[in-house]
Amino acid sequence: MVWRTTFITMSTCFLLGTTSTHWIADHNVLWRNPVTPEALATSVKYYSLLNAAPKGLGWVYVIIGLVAILSVCGRGIKGYKGNGGEVLFDGGSFVLSAAIAYTQLSDVGPTIALFPSPLPGSLHDHPTYPALVTAVRDLATNNVMTAVMLTGLMLLQAGRYYSKKPSASPPTTVDDSLVSTPVRAPSPEKQPSPVSKRSGTPYRELTEAEALELNSDDVQKSASKRRGTKKR
């Protein structure tokens, strides 16, 4: 349904945006070689502040994650029952959602909880510094993995929408009985001879019947003249 698509899309965009904000601390750990102590200290301070954030922000993150998971599960159940679902897209979305939830609950959340708040004054000399350095490296890796899985979830939703999009309407069929057969042009041999152009003028050719009638009139006139001369 439309509301499932809306919930999945909006929650996925929110989770991807919040995960991308960690890039300000993760890029120095992942893409800088060699990794400097200042970059590690910046990442440790960032996650320490994140651990000290109000608990309400964490619950917002959890609630939106639950909305995404429940929407994906509902769509997967609907597709399993054969009510217009797509096995490929719904199954892939369910697997990615489960992997994201497992990563957040088993790795990201417990690791962020390890960061002390406030941090000790001499961070580099503190006994927990090596463990914190390992923690920021793990968090950077997990955040990248989460961002990739969230992007894959959005691509699956886009693919599902494209697969359900109606295609172009099929061409309309025409009943053969209603189609009139084309009239063939007469062959040049069977075409009637063109009418003489003189038929449109005051002087036209006489037909055979008219010619015979005129000849009979002339014969009668000549015969009557002969009779008249004989009587004289």
Automatic annotation (TrEMBL):
Mind telling me which residue stretches traverse the membrane in this protein?
56-75
List every stretch annotated Disordered. Answer: 165-232
Ranges of compositional bias, category Basic residues: 223-232
Query: Which Pfam families does this one have?
Result: SHR3_chaperone
Enumerate the GO terms in the molecular function aspect. unfolded protein binding
Residue spans of biased composition, Polar residues class? 170-180
According to its UniProt entry, the protein's GO biological process terms are: endoplasmic reticulum to Golgi vesicle-mediated transport
Signal peptide location: none
Q: Which UniProt keywords apply?
A: Membrane, Transmembrane, Transmembrane helix
GO terms for CC?
A: endoplasmic reticulum membrane
- PANTHER family the UniProt entry points to: SECRETORY COMPONENT PROTEIN SHR3
Q: What is this protein called?
A: ER membrane protein SH3
- According to its UniProt entry, this protein's organism is Kwoniella shandongensis
